[in-house]
Amino acid sequence: MNANQKATGMADMKVRLSTLWVFVMINMLMADIVTFMNPGALGQMIAGDMGFQVTQEILLVFSILLEIPIVMILLSRVLNHRPNRWANIIAGVITILFVIGGGSPYLSYIFFATIEVVSMAFIIWQAWKWTAQEA
Q1: Do the domain assignments include residue 56?
Q2: In principle, which of 2, 78, 124, 129 could form an S-S bond with 92, CB 3.0–4.6 Å?
């Protein structure tokens, strides 16, 4: 494999991973928007009645967890091979746990969560099989 093919292979994987994170983020946003449309859901959220007490600390934790896929859009493009692989694997696992743990009984959420989990599993698999030779 010549230098140009190596550069193209690495760029291709970086673009693929970044694009998958964009896809995950759009699905996460749409899941939240559709959840707001469920009768009574927005009122419960405004009242802070979500099955647990909504505090500034809880909102900070949610913000940090939601920032992971956002930052992975950028990091997937700029990190070198080894840290890129591990960042994608770790971020994928953490985000899957967040999506499943923050689950909702609404069918629309289950639909979006399934798409998100499958997409992140694909990210993890792509990063896992990404070899140094390809990079």
Answers
A1: yes
A2: 124
In whole angstroms, give the CA distance from residue 32 to residue 28: 6
Q: How far is CA 26 from the centre of its chain?
A: 9
Report the distance separating Cα 68 and Cα 89, nearest Å. Answer: 12
Instruction: Identify residue 92 by its one-letter amino acid code.
Output: G
What's this model's pTM, rounded to 2 decimal places?
Answer: 0.84
22 Cβ neighbours under 8 A, 6+ residues apart: 73
The residue with greater pLDDT, 9 or 21, is 21
> Distances in Å between the alpha carbon of 113 and those of 40, 62, 99?
21, 16, 6
Report d(CA 32, CA 113) in Å as an integer.
11
Residue the block writes with tokens 């070198």: 80
In a domain, 104, yes or no: yes
Residue-number span of the structural domain to which 58 is assigned: 3-129
> Domain for residue 78, yes or no?
yes
pLDDT at 45 exceeding the cut of 80: no
H helix count then E strand count, the chain: 5, 0
